[in-house]
């Protein structure tokens, strides 16, 4: 029995190190290859030994697909390709490919773990991620130039179709592009709206398909459009479930709230820290503050912490087709990513007096500049930290959000948090309503939840099972879900046979189910359905005719000719739907069945009816003999 | 399958393909060469143009002198310029299901088709094609609308009068169908019917046909199209290039195995090498400027201009031109330059890698930043303040009939220091210049047409091996001016089928198979038997379901259980449906084994007689006779149904069913 198998190596009942193995119709695909921000040991990366136990990664996997540039979705790529040794195709969108090395580099700078530093430094030095071959769609994977370093096979990045996403897909849903990985495996991308270049993917082999959402957002924001999918009815939908139990209020309310809090803090002379990742939310919030500052004519400075900003904004400018329609329409007149009020941050500014707003990386306060600033400002209750996104367990961000006010820092120092801590859900994930909406749009046969917390998943699982009457799964890491499928078999039907059948279907009695009869010729992997006559002809076989002739004895003293006339009128009256004919030679035909009347050699009072038919008319022939055996009605 | 040919212009095609149950329009090109018959529209009142003498017939009859003006021996229509539309009568255009656009030059007639023919379908195009196509249309509308002209000449179009006119007016085709330019409102409405597509995307049309755009290498977002069903494939090649300029390279491999390849949009100047033309362009430009003259480059606001600017970017400093201002004047100049930078995905490899740095893919960003290149919406406004000579001006329209270029022709035409350099290949430069004669300025003709030439085409055809090639008639013979150059035509086997405007071609195409899905339950019930090594057969009896052009075979319904005779049976209920087909039989019956089998089943007193063609088996007791021949068996018996059925089943055991 064919089946689809899914095994999360990461993100099973957890958020972080997304990595899901899917086996579909003999193809093995890895969805995302992320790292876990909350760990610095082995748990940082997905457990690739699950595959490597039994062989080489490259042999096992047909391809790897990366949904977007966040490190919990692509952060393990260097480790995966450089250390574990995968050199098969990796699919991602162009913005993902451009931005992911930047974030890796960003991470390298703040990583405390020495090993990570080494790996990512190596990547950086070799610019391995930049050795990207942009291949023509139908081209084969070319080996990029080999690096001088013998330690690694160079990364082979195979980009998804350069036009993998229809940028306008968010506003005008249509069919999205489709890529062929090989003759059988197809990938189709949908706009996900989570970050620049984020995509959802449909993986399809024949009539079996799986949709993986990556992270997605069902409501448009200030720079991206909303995710959408068509009614593609996959066998399985694998969806993130970060906000499995949350239903968020309207975006506008949240924005107003955010601006109000920032404004109040700045008015009373406090400092606002907003930990963000360099790309994504940062740009959205910058656009928000920029327009607010302009409208309110505020003077307090807004800083962006890393040197990345300018670069990041450059990316946004070059990838305008991936943003929302409004930005795309107006970019010629005014580029939304050129900010007047947002300036570059310098370390020294953190100690300057007076109000300010600072965007600092990273977003979960687990290291780097945002953590440094946080430590400086935490003691003053006038200040405020606004966490605009989800924080992974184990990070400082997660701790303060769960109410902890005394933090143990390295060196047994205890940091008392007096500043106000606010959480504003700006992370661009779908909430429970959005997830249900997407399931409703795609109409999958099964749903599988990843990228969420087990307890919340449980709730959503029940809700999905109740509302959509489909099975819902939530495997833990390393646990395999197996779904039996029953794919149909495509064959070629000869046009002659099909047209004959379709023409018959137009007849008045077409309501009765009609049987199509033909012969399936299977030669190698070529399956063709043809009419039986054609099959015989093609194979050089002659038809064998099987004919029956039955003698039916009738008591009738009249002449043979008159008997024939009586038979004719009898059959004519009984068989209204059939073609009954009386031929000049005295014989009677019903369709192709021939009936002749003859005198009995011995008994003149008996006539013999010879009923003759071929095997093809078996039912009718048999029926006629039994009908005639009952005798003819008396002539009136 | 039929092809309706609506345009006679080989590089601005418009064909309609009827394939299976779909009607697909391939491109929507607008033939603008008709505007060459009109007087230019000057931005600034031109005494020269307004004082041209009216034209009169040989006999001195001057009733046309309001409509027709004479300039240096040529006659021009003094009217709002008009365009030659694709045929609208050959086929009912409201039946067109979809329009496929191959590049932004080939969609200029779109508003005429989508807004005025009852068209209700969808248009498919790539995002760059739509955005740049919009810019081209916007520029065109702007050029024409900003110079309102009261007069619209129609008298000369009268067939009897047209006959009396001098060439080329006399020979102009279909003048009665020529139309004025559309409005911006019509453009917007037409463009709103477009659905964006990406290369390699498979678009299903009614479940019957799949269409796929492929990179064609000619312009930003330019595509060739594959139109296919499961068993047939038509390739539509339009405006393709193998040269490495800025767009993504052409996808040739996907064109393989086509039943029919429709070939349009080859180079219009097969004798000119684009590379040497660019060289000539640069050297003439610097020569003129060094001598203190101005250079005018009539051009479209997108396309080759990006390559020219890139060339100049590398050339300016080495040629000592850094102090010379370059002006790009078009209502869409800014948009065009900005848009070119955001379509990284559609660019060639070198340009794509720039966005990873991140840097703008085209160097004209730097030219703008360093003030070497300035762009203006028109000659009015800021431009008049900044204008310094000598200078280089890129502006439209290449026909020289409207746009800012008309002003520069009038301004610079009188001085031999100045040069006009023609780079766009769409208009013959002598005809374009005709209304400006006599002219003192130098004219350099270096047309840059990167589309396929005949050598590349024949190589391409050898590689992709289509069964049949269909192309405009112009490609099946050498160009009229170079009739000895038999190398300047398509050479393929079998010879290409050619079409001309308003022709309908029946494409040589026999459909034999269609895809059908066998449901898994039915597939499980099939019993394959091997007939020859590697060939197996299975007889299939199934119910056919057809929906949205998709065919599915499902297992036959189980025979309904007779329901205890609640209803009185009518006689007709018993009559078998003669449409239930029995399988065909094949094979032959070995007599000896057959007799043994009969004996095994309790028949006795069996007699076998030989006949000329076979045998007769007599079952004397049952008064039954069985004739057995190579290809037939005949059972003749009394009316004993039980016996007959027993014999039938024994015979069938020896035969194969189909």
From TrEMBL, chain A:
Main location: cytoplasm
InterPro entries registered for this protein in UniProt: Beta_Casp (IPR022712), INTS11-like_MBL-fold (IPR041897), IntS11_C (IPR048662), MBL (IPR050698), Metallo-B-lactamas (IPR001279), RibonucZ/Hydroxyglut_hydro (IPR036866), RMMBL (IPR011108)
SUPFAM superfamilies per record: Metallo-hydrolase/oxidoreductase (SSF56281)
Superkingdom of source: Eukaryota
Keywords: Cytoplasm, Hydrolase, Metal-binding, Nucleus, Zinc
CDD domains associated with the record: INTS11-like_MBL-fold
Subcellular localization(s) per the UniProt record: Cytoplasm; Nucleus
All residue ranges annotated as the Beta-Casp domain in the record: 282-400
Cofactors required: Zn(2+)
Pfam family of the protein (one): IntS11_C
GO BP annotations, alphabetical order: snRNA processing
Cellular component terms (Gene Ontology): cytoplasm; nucleus
Gene Ontology MF term list: hydrolase activity; metal ion binding; RNA endonuclease activity
Record domain Metallo-beta-lactamase: where: 16-270
Assembly and oligomerization: Component of the Integrator complex, composed of core subunits INTS1, INTS2, INTS3, INTS4, INTS5, INTS6, INTS7, INTS8, INTS9/RC74, INTS10, INTS11/CPSF3L, INTS12, INTS13, INTS14 and INTS15. The core complex associates with protein phosphatase 2A subunits PPP2CA and PPP2R1A, to form the Integrator-PP2A (INTAC) complex. INTS11 is part of the RNA endonuclease subcomplex, composed of INTS4, INTS9, INTS11 and inositol hexakisphosphate (InsP6). Interacts with WDR73; interaction is required for the assembly of the RNA endonuclease subcomplex in the cytoplasm.
Family, per entry: Belongs to the metallo-beta-lactamase superfamily. RNA-metabolizing metallo-beta-lactamase-like family. INTS11 subfamily.
Protein name: Integrator complex subunit 11
Provenance organism: Tursiops truncatus (Atlantic bottle-nosed dolphin)
The encoding gene: INTS11
From TrEMBL, chain B:
CDD domains in the record: Int9-like_MBL-fold
Keyword Ribosomal protein: no
Record key words, sorted: Cytoplasm, Nucleus
Statement: the UniProt record of this protein carries the keyword Cell membrane: no
Domain Beta-Casp, chain residue ranges per copy: 305-433
Cellular-component GO terms for this entry: cytosol; INTAC complex; integrator complex
InterPro entries: Beta_Casp, Integrator_9su, IntS9-like_C, Metallo-B-lactamas, RibonucZ/Hydroxyglut_hydro
Family, as annotated: Belongs to the metallo-beta-lactamase superfamily. RNA-metabolizing metallo-beta-lactamase-like family. INTS9 subfamily.
Function statement: Component of the integrator complex, a multiprotein complex that terminates RNA polymerase II (Pol II) transcription in the promoter-proximal region of genes.
Subunit structure comment from the entry: Component of the Integrator complex, composed of core subunits INTS1, INTS2, INTS3, INTS4, INTS5, INTS6, INTS7, INTS8, INTS9/RC74, INTS10, INTS11/CPSF3L, INTS12, INTS13, INTS14 and INTS15. The core complex associates with protein phosphatase 2A subunits PPP2CA and PPP2R1A, to form the Integrator-PP2A (INTAC) complex. INTS9 is part of the RNA endonuclease subcomplex, composed of INTS4, INTS9, INTS11 and inositol hexakisphosphate (InsP6). Interacts with WDR73; interaction is required for the assembly of the RNA endonuclease subcomplex in the cytoplasm.
Stated name of the protein: Integrator complex subunit 9
UniProt source species: Tursiops truncatus
High-level lineage: Eukaryota, Metazoa, Chordata, Craniata, Vertebrata
């Amino acid at each position: 029995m064919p089946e689809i198998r899914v095994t999360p190596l990461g993100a099973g009942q957890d958020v972080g190190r997304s990595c899901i193995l899917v086996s579909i119709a003999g193809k093995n695909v890895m969805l995302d290859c992320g790292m876990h921000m909350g760990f610095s040991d082995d748990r940082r990366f997905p457990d690739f030994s699950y595959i490597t136990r039994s062989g080489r990664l490259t042999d096992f996997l047909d391809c790897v697909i990366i949904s977007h540039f966040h490190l919990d979705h692509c952060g393990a790529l260097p480790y995966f390709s450089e250390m574990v040794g995968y050199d098969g195709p990796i699919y991602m969108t162009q913005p993902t490919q451009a931005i992911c090395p930047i974030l890796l580099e960003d991470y390298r700078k703040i990583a405390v773990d020495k090993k990570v530093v080494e790996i990512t430094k190596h990547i950086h030095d070799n610019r391995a991620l930049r050795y990207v071959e942009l291949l023509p769609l139908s081209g084969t994977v070319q080996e990029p130039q080999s690096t001088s370093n013998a330690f690694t096979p160079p990364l082979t990045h195979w980009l998804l179709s350069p036009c993998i996403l229809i940028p306008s897909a968010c506003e005008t849903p249509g069919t999205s592009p489709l890529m062929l990985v090989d003759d059988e495996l197809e990938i189709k991308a949908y706009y996900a709206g989570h970050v620049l270049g984020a995509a959802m993917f449909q993986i399809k082999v024949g009539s079996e398909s799986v949709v993986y959402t990556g992270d997605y957002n069902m409501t448009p924001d200030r720079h991206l459009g909303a995710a959408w999918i068509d009614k593609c009815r996959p066998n399985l939908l694998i969806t993130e479930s970060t906000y499995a139990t949350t239903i968020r209020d309207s975006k506008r309310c949240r924005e107003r709230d955010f601006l109000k809090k920032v404004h109040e803090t700045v008015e009373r002379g406090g400092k606002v820290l907003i930990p963000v990742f360099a790309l994504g939310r940062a740009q959205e919030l910058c656009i928000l503050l920029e327009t607010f500052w302009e409208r309110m004519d505020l003077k307090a400075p807004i800083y962006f912490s890393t040197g990345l900003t300018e670069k990041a904004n450059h990316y946004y400018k070059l990838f305008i087709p991936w943003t929302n329609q409004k930005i795309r329409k107006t970019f010629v007149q005014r580029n939304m990513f050129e900010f007047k009020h947002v300036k570059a941050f310098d370390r020294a500014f953190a100690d300057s007096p007076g109000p300010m707003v600072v965007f600092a990386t990273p977003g979960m306060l687990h290291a780097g500049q945002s953590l440094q600033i946080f430590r400086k400002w935490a003691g003053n209750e006038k200040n405020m930290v606004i966490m605009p996104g989800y924080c992974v367990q184990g990070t400082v961000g997660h701790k303060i959000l769960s109410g902890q006010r005394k933090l143990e820092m390295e060196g047994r120092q205890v940091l008392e948090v007096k500043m106000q801590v606010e959480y504003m859900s700006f992370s661009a994930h779908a909430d429970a309503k959005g997830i249900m909406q997407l399931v409703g749009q795609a109409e999958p046969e099964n749903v599988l939840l990843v990228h969420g917390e087990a307890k919340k998943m449980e709730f959503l699982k029940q809700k999905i099972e109740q509302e959509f009457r489909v099975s819902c799964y939530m495997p833990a890491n390393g646990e395999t879900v197996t779904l039996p499928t029953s794919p149909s078999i495509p064959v070629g039907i000869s046009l002659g046979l099909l047209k004959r059948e379709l023409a018959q279907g137009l007849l008045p009695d077409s309501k009765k189910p009609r049987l199509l009869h033909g012969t399936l010729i299977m030669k190698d992997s070529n399956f063709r359905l043809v009419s039986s006559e054609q099959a015989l002809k093609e194979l050089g076989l002659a038809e064998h005719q099987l004919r029956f002739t039955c003698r039916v004895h009738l008591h009738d003293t009249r002449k043979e000719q008159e008997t024939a006339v009586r038979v004719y009128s009898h059959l004519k009256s009984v068989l209204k739907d059939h073609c009954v004919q009386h031929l000049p030679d005295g014989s009677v035909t019903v369709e192709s069945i021939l009936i002749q009347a003859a005198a009995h050699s011995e008994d003149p009072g008996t006539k013999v009816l010879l009923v003759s038919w071929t095997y093809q008319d078996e039912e009718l022939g048999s029926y006629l003999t039994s009908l005639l055996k009952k005798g003819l009605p008396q002539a009136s | 399958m039929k092809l309706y040919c609506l345009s006679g212009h080989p590089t601005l095609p418009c064909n309609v393909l009827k394939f299976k149950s779909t009607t697909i329009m391939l491109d929507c090109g607008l033939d603008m060469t008709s505007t060459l018959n009109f007087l230019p529209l000057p931005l600034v009142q031109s005494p020269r143009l307004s004082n041209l003498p009216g034209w009169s017939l040989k006999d001195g009859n001057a009733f046309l002198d309001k409509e027709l003006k004479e300039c240096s021996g040529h006659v021009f229509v003094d009217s709002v310029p008009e365009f030659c539309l694709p045929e609208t009568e050959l086929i009912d255009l409201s039946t067109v299901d979809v329009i496929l656009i191959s590049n932004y030059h080939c969609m200029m007639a779109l508003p005429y088709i989508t807004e005025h023919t009852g068209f209700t379908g969808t248009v498919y195009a790539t995002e760059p094609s739509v955005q740049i196509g919009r810019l081209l249309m916007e520029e065109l509308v702007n050029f024409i609308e900003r110079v309102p002209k009261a007069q619209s000449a129609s008298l000369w179009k009268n067939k009897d009068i047209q006959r009396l006119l001098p060439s080329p007016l006399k020979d102009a085709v279909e003048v009665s169908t020529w139309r004025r330019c559309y409005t911006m409102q019509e453009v917007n409405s037409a463009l709103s019917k477009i659905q964006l597509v990406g290369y390699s995307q498979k678009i299903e049309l009614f479940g019957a046909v799949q269409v796929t755009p492929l990179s064609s290498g000619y312009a930003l977002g330019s595509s060739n199209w594959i139109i296919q069903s499961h068993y047939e494939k038509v390739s539509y090649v339009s405006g393709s290039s193998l040269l490495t300029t800025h767009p993504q390279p052409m996808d040739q491999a996907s064109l393989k195995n086509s039943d029919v390849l429709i070939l349009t949009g080859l180079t219009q100047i097969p004798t000119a090498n684009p590379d040497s033309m660019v060289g000539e362009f640069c050297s003439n430009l610097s020569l003129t400027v060094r001598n203190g003259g101005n250079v005018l480059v009539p051009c479209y606001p997108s396309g080759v201009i990006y390559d020219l600017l890139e060339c100049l970017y590398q050339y300016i400093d080495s040629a000592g031109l850094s102090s010379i201002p370059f002006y790009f004047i078009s209502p869409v100049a800014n948009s065009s330059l900005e848009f070119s930078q955001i379509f990284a995905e559609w660019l060639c490899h070198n340009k794509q890698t720039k966005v990873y740095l991140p840097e703008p893919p085209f160097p004209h960003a730097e030219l703008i930043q360093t003030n070497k290149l300035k762009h203006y919406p028109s000659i009015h406004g800021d431009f008049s303040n900044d204008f310094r000579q000598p200078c280089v001006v890129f502006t439209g329209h290449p026909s020289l009939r409207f746009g800012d270029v008309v002003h520069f022709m009038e301004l610079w035409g009188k001085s031999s220091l100045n040069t006009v350099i023609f780079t766009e290949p769409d208009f013959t430069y002598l005809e374009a210049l005709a209304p400006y004669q006599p002219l003192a300025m130098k004219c350099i003709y270096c047309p840059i047409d990167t589309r396929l030439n005949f050598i590349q085409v024949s190589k391409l055809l050898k590689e992709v091996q289509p069964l049949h090639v269909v192309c405009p008639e112009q490609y099946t013979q050498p160009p009229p001016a170079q009739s000895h150059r038999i190398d300047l035509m398509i050479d393929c086997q079998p010879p290409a089928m050619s079409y001309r405007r308003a022709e309908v071609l029946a494409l040589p195409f026999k459909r034999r198979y269609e895809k059908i899905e066998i449901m898994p339950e039915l597939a499980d019930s099939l019993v394959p038997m091997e007939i020859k090594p590697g060939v197996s057969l299975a007889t299939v009896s199934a119910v056919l379901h057809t929906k949205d052009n998709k065919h599915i075979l499902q297992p036959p319904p189980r025979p309904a259980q007779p329901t205890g005779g609640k209803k009185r049976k009518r006689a007709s209920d018993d009559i078998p449906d003669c449409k239930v087909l029995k399988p065909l039989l094949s094979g032959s019956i070995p007599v000896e084994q057959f007799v043994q089998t009969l004996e095994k089943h309790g028949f006795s007193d069996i007699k076998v007689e030989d006949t000329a063609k076979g045998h007769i088996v007599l079952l004397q007791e049952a008064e039954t006779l069985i004739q057995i021949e190579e290809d037939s068996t005949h059972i003749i018996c009394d009316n004993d149904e039980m016996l007959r059925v027993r014999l039938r089943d024994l015979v069938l055991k020896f035969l194969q069913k189909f």
